[in-house]
Amino acid sequence: MEKHGMHPDDHDQPPPYADDASSQTQHSSSSVDMTFLEHADPENPFAFTAEQLVALMERRDVDFLKQTGGLHGLTRGLHSHPQHGLNTAHEAQTLPRVTLYDLADGRSQDKHLDEDEDEDDIVMDTPTPTTSTFSQRQAVFGSNVLPKVKVQSVLQLMWQALQDRTLILLTVAAIISLAVGIYEDLTTVEYDVNGNRIPGVKWVEGTAIILAVLIVVVVGSVNDYQKEQQFRKLNVKKEDRHVSAIRSGKNTAISVHDIQVGDLLRLEPGDIVPADGVFVHGQSLKCDESAATGESNAVSKATLDDCVALRWFGDQANSSAETLVCMSSNGTSKDYQLIESALNQRKTDAAIDPFLISGSRVLQGTCVYIVTAVGVRSMHGKTLMALRTQEQSTPLQEKLDVLAGNIAKCGVSAAGLLLVILLIRCVINYTTPSATSSVVFPLTPADVISQITRILITAVTVVVVAVPEGLPLAVTLALAYATQRMLKDNNLVRVLSACETMGNATTVCSDKTGTLTQNKMAVVAGTLGSSFRFSKDTSQPDLIDLHHLARKLPTPVLHLLQQAIAVNTTAFESIAANGEPALLGSKTETALIQFSQQWLHAETFESLRTRYPAERVYPFTSATKAMATIVRLEVGGRTVYRMHVKGASEMLVCRATALVSMHAPQYNEKASDVETRAMTEKNRMRMRKIIQSYATRCLRTLALAYKDFDELPDSHDLEPLLLQGGLTLVGIMGIEDPLRPNARKAVQACQRAGVCVRMVTGDNMLTAKSIARQCGMYTTGDHALDGPSYRRLTTAERHALLPSLKILARSTPDDKRLLVEDLRQCGEIVAVTGDGTNDGPALTAADVGFAMGIAGTEVAKEASHIILMDDNFGSIVKAISWGRCVNDSVKKFLQFQLTVNITAVVLTLVSAMVSDDQTSVLTAVQLLWVNLIMDTFGALALATDPPSPDMLDRRPEPRTAPLISSRMWKMIIGQAVYQILVILALLYTNVLGMPDTTLQTMVFTTFVFCQIFNEINCRRIDANYNVFAGLMRNGFFVAIFVVSVLGQVLIVQYGGAAFQTNPLDATHWAVSLFIGVLSIPIGALIRMIPDDLFSPSGLALQQRPWLTADTKSFV
User: Basic and acidic residues compositional bias: what residue ranges (predicted)?
Assistant: First the structure.
C-alpha cells in the first residue's frame, strides 16, 4: 500500500491548504470557494458557511469532505457528534467558534464532542426542545421551512383580469358611451313618426358593455380560483411529518420542520430523505433518486472511508491486476477485492457516494446520516423555490392584445374621419343654407351645441360598434368549457390559458422515467435452460409469449422459479400512501416478484417465504455481484439444502456446471423435481450470446441458479461457495423499465399533429436511445446529445442543433431548463412533461407544463399547468385536441364578430353621412341587440363545439402566425361586402316600396338574419365546404340559433317604441330570411377564392424555415 504513496485513511492526515493548486483548480468553475480559507463572519461559530455545505452537496465533493477531516471533521465543524448528534444543553449556550484549521489539526474547542459516551445509553422517545434552542444554528444555516406562498384572493385575480388590454378598451368605450348616453337622455326628448315619445334608453349600451366586462372578469377569476382550490384538494397531504433523530444521545421523534443542520437522522426502507446530508453509518443502503435527478438506477450509499477506498483502488486498477488488502480505520483487515469492485462499479450507471439528497426514497437498508442543508438551501427546497416564477402571457393573449390595439386604432380613426366629415358638412350647411337643409335660422348657441353633441354621439357610436364586446367573453367561455370537458379526459387544468397554448405547441419535451415509461422495472424477456425463450407481446414462432408462459412451463420448473424468486429477495410488502399494499425494495427485485405473480401465477411471496423459511441469507455485495438464500427441502425422500442464487449473468454462467432441462421426458411422468443436464461449452457460448443480445436491447440481465447441499454449509460468506462452482443455471431474465401502454401511439399522434417530441432525461444514453426508438421519436438522421456536451455548446451552436436534436440524456434540471429556453428563443411553443422533482424547473420555464397526477411528485404538480390524472402520455394528445379546439373557437367567433362589426361600422358611417340629421340607420338599442346579445350568444354557440379528429391532421401555428389568417380575412371581407351591398341597396333603392319606418325595420331584420346564418358559416374556418358537420352534436349552438331567431321575431313584432320597429308582414319576413340564408352559399363561393389574394402584405408565412422542415416529416 505504501509504495503507492496513499492510504485509504489518509483523510485523517492534515489536508492541503489554499495554496494547493490542484485543490483550487478542480472546482474553478464554481463561485463558491471550497478551499481552506477561514470565513470572516463573527456571528458564525461553525467551521463551514451555508454556501460551502450547499456546494458540497451539489458537487458531491468527496475530496473537500476528506480534506476537512472526514466525518469527524464535519461533525466537529457543525458542533455535532457522530453518535450522539446535537447536544441540546450545549445549544442553549453560546457556541465556541470552530475553524477549518482546527479540523485540519484535529483540535476541538468543543468539550462535549470529546466526551466518550456509550451508545447503549440512548433512551427512546424523550421530549425534544423547541426550535428556539437552535437560534445560533438557524441564523447561519436557516430552518427547514420554505417561505410561504402568497395565495391570491378572488378580488386580486379579478384585478389582474382587468389588466387585459381588450377589457381596458371595452371599459373606456363603455364609460364614454354611458356618459354620453346619460347626457343625451337627460337633454334630448325624441318622438317617433307616430308622435310617440321614445324612451330614454341610450345609457343601456354603456351599461351593457360594463356588465359584459364584469361577467368576463368574474367568470375568469372564479374559474382560476376554483382550479387552484381543486389542485390543492388533489394534493391534500399532511406536510408536517415526524422523523427519527438522535439528539443528546437519545432517540427522539421531531417534526420535519424542526430539522437542523448537524442533526443525526435515522432512515429506514420507504422513508423520504427530508434534508440533504452525509452518510454516517448503516447497512446496504440504496436510494431511488429518480424523482430528484432522473437517475433510474438505485444509488448505493456508503461511508466516506469506503467511498475513498473504492475510488483509490479503482484508480489503481489501470496499472495493477492484483487483489489488494487494506486496513480500515479501526484496524481490522478487510479483503475488499477493491480493484474488481471498482472496475465493476465503474461499469454501473451510478457510483457509490456518501451524499443523501432530499426528496429521494430509501429502497433498502438502514442508516444514520448528518444533515448539511435544510429549507431553501437543500436540493428539494431549491427546486421548489425555482418554481415560484411569474406567469408569462400566452401566444393567444399576446395576439389578442395586438388585435385590441389595432381595433382601437381603427375605431378611433373611423370615428375621427366621421367626426371631421360631419363637422365639415355642418359648417357648410350653416354657411350656405339651402332649401333642403334642415337648419333653422336664426341659429342660437344652444342649436350649435346640440348639433355638435349629436355629431359627437354618432362618432362615439362608431367606436362602440367597432369594439368587439363579445371577444373576451368568447375566450373565457371557450377556456372554461374546455377545462371542464378536459377533466373528463383526465386533464386537470390548473392554469386556464394553458388550454389554448397547448393547441399550438410545436415541441413536447418529455421525461423518460415515469412519463414515457412506467418507472418500474419489469421482466420483458428471458431464457430458461438454453433454448426456452420467452418475450412480451411477441409474434415470433420460436418465442413464448408471456401470457402463455405458465401453461408452457414444466410444472417442476414453474415451482422452482416461484420458489427461487420468493425466498431469495430483500423486497417486502408495505402499505402505500393511498392505503393499497405495495412492494418495497429495489426495482429489480420487485420486477421479479411481479413477474412471478403476474405471469407464473404464483401465490403471494410472503406465503412462499413462510412455507420455505430461510436457513441462511447471503446479502448482495459488489464483490460477489450476487445474493443467495438457503432453504431446506425434501427432494426424492431426502433432505437437501438448496441455495438459490441470483446475480450478474456473466459470473453465474461461468460458475455453472449444469443447467435446467426444459424438455426432459420425465416431465411427462409427473416428475417431482427439475431435471438437469451438463453445461457444455457450446451451451455456455450460447448463453453469452443471449446475454449480449439482451444488452443490445438495453435490457438489464439477471441470472437465476441454484445448488444443492446435503448439509448446511459452514461458510457465512457467499464468495467461497461461488468459487466452488457446481451451480445449476435456471435461466437469464431480461429486465427493463417498460413503455407505458399507449406511449408509442401517443407519440405518433403528436408527430401526425406536427408536434416534435423530444426526450430529456437524466438516464444514460443507451437506455434513452432504446426507449426513444421504441416510441418512434428517434430515427435515422436524428441527433442525441448528453447534458454536459449540450452545455458546452455556444448559443448559436445549440440553436443550429435543435431541429435534429431528439434526445438529451444525462441532463441536469438546469440542462432541461436551458433546452426549453433555447427552444422558446427560436420561436417554439414548448410543452414539457415530467413526474419528478428534477422536472420542476423545466415545467415552470415551458409554455405548458404537464405533471403526472399519480406518480408525480408534489414539486412537479406545483410547477405544472396541467396535471395528467391517469399518468398517461396519451392524454397529452387529448390536451392538444382541446387546445386546438379552443383556438379554433376563438377564431370562429373572431371571424363572426369582425364581420358584424365591420358591417355595422360601415352602415353607421354611410347612413350618418347621408342622413340629414347625422344619425345612424341602426339605433342604439338595436345596436345593443346586435353587438351584445348576439355576440354573447354567438360566443357561447361557437365556443362549445367539441374537438374533431381532423384537428390532429394539421400542423401547429407558430408563435409569429397572425391571429386572423388570410382564409379568415377572405371570409370576413367577403361576407361583410355582401351584407353591406345588400343592406345599402335595400336602404337607398327601396325596391320593395316600403314606408321609411318599415324600411328601417326591414334593414335591421335583414342585418340580424345575415349574422345568424353567418354564424353557421363561421363554424368552419378551414376550406371545408360542409359547415353543418357535427352541428347536432352541439346542443348549445342549436338552442342559441333558435333563441336568436325567436328573439328577433319578438323584437320586431312586439318591440314597438323600445326598439323603434314596426311589425313586418310575411313577404318582408321571407325576403329578410332569404337574404340571411343566402350567406351560406355565398360562404361556399368565397371559399373557392384563392387565399393568397387576401394574404396580409409583409407577412412571412414562416419565419423559421427549419421548423417547417423539422415538422414536415411528421405530417
Answer: 1-13
